[in-house]
Amino acid sequence: MPHAYHLSNAAELFTPSLVFFPELIRKNIARTVEMAGSASRLRPHAKTHKTREITRMQLEAGVTKHKCATIAEAEILADSGVPDVLLAYALVGPNGKRFGALAKKFPNTRFAALFDCSISLNTLAVAAQEAGRPLGAMIDLNVGMDRSGIVIGDDALALYEQAAKTPGLYADGLHAYDGHTRHSDPAERLAFVRGILDSVLAFQKRIEQRGLSVPKIVAGGTPSFPCYASIRDVPHLECSPGTYVLHDHGYGANFPDYAMIPAAVLLTRVISRPTPTRVTFDLGNKSVAPDPILTKRVYLLDAPEHTVVTHSEEHLVIETAEADRYQPGDLVYALPGHICPSVALHQEVFIAEGGRVVGRWEVAARNRFITV
Ligand SMILES: Cc1ncc(COP(=O)(O)O)c(C=O)c1O
């Protein structure tokens, strides 16, 4: 078996399962700190790993500022000792009070959340009231992805001013997530990212001209991380990649310049050979996320040329001229196309060290509720 993930005790392991390789995770964290120039320039996103253990590994590497998408993730981060948590999500409805209760429960953690309109801003003010202490309010800018955020302009300026004046909140800077940065060519990617950052910096200047402060800019995900990491003349710029820590085949294929190592591998077994050219694995969409498109959903290591033809709840079916290489029971290692939603499908993951599985970690923030 030529690939680097071979496990000497694989025969004992149930499938389908997901295996994390902490030695590789540590390398990805260290490489990211090195690329950023300092751990203080990082604010990694916890949605990829959702675990206490990886949070602690990042803390050990000096990464004290973290980002998350759910209140459960925020609780796991605070409970693991993270001193600075940004909920990179707008609060609406009862999540305001709930976020406030979380801030009350963890008084040693600094909390902030996003807003992009008066409704989410007011909900954040409710959170601060519930917490009984000030919370950070970071404006979410729509820098071209068109998923959330307010476009840069007069309305955004007025909204930022409104945040600065809201009792219980302090205006905490600018959030610029660019999930539409997808250029494979590193130079093209850098030029695109520089364009986004320049518009954010120009907006920052307008805010400061009104006498308000912009303590930080939180920007980017994994594809744009090397670009933001290389920009050293913006001292308050924090980079917020998430996927990098486990990495996946999707990013690996799209961004070949990217020096991260996939640190999470799926184990699957052949369960059937329904036709002479088909092989069926126990790797349904309840164990590897149905994302991205079918043909890129999963990368089977050491497999012959094949096409994924169907993917249902418990079955992954491939078509290959070399189907007779397989028989039921054969173990195959696979890289997920998209690791983040795949992790969220597993309550526990196996941990491999020294070429064998030695334990398990709970994917703690997979739960929607922890205690708050
Ligand atoms: C707001 C926000 N920040 C950061 C990230 C991290 O991006 P990536 O998964 O590319 O590392 C994401 C990913 O979904 C995100 O939504």
Kindly describe this structure.
The protein is an alpha/beta fold and 372 residues long. It folds into 2 domains: 113 residues, D-serine dehydratase-like domain (Lyase, Ornithine Decarboxylase, Chain A, domain 1, Beta Barrel); 224 residues, Alanine racemase (TIM Barrel), CATH 3.20.20. The protein contains 10 helices and 16 strands. Strands 1, 9, 10, 11, 12, 13, 14, 15 and 16 form a 9-stranded mixed β-sheet that branches. Strands 2-3-4-5-6-7-8 form a 7-stranded parallel β-sheet. Helix 4 runs parallel beside helix 5. The N and C termini lie far apart (46 Å). The structure holds pyridoxal-5'-phosphate. The site of pyridoxal-5'-phosphate has 12 residues, from loops.
Name the descriptors.
372 residues, alpha/beta, Lyase, Ornithine Decarboxylase, Chain A, domain 1, TIM Barrel, 2 domains, nine-stranded mixed sheet, seven-stranded parallel sheet, 10 helices, 16 strands, 30% helix, globular, binds pyridoxal-5'-phosphate
Structural class: alpha/beta
User: What's the CATH architecture name of the largest domain?
Assistant: Alpha-Beta Barrel
* Mean pLDDT reading: 97
**Straight-line N-to-C gap:** 46 Å
Oligomer: single chain
Overall geometry comes to globular
Give every kind of bound small molecule, once each.
pyridoxal-5'-phosphate
Count of domain modules: 2
Write down how many β-strands occur, each being a DSSP E stretch of 2 or more residues.
Answer: 16
Series of secondary-structure elements, N-terminal to C-terminal: EHHEHEHEHEHEHEHEHEEEEEEHEE
Cα Rg: 22 Å
The CATH superfamily name of the largest domain is Alanine racemase
Can you tell me the residue ranges where pLDDT is under 50 for at least 5 consecutive residues? none
Largest sheet: 9 strands, mixed
Under CATH, the topology of the largest domain can be stated as: TIM Barrel
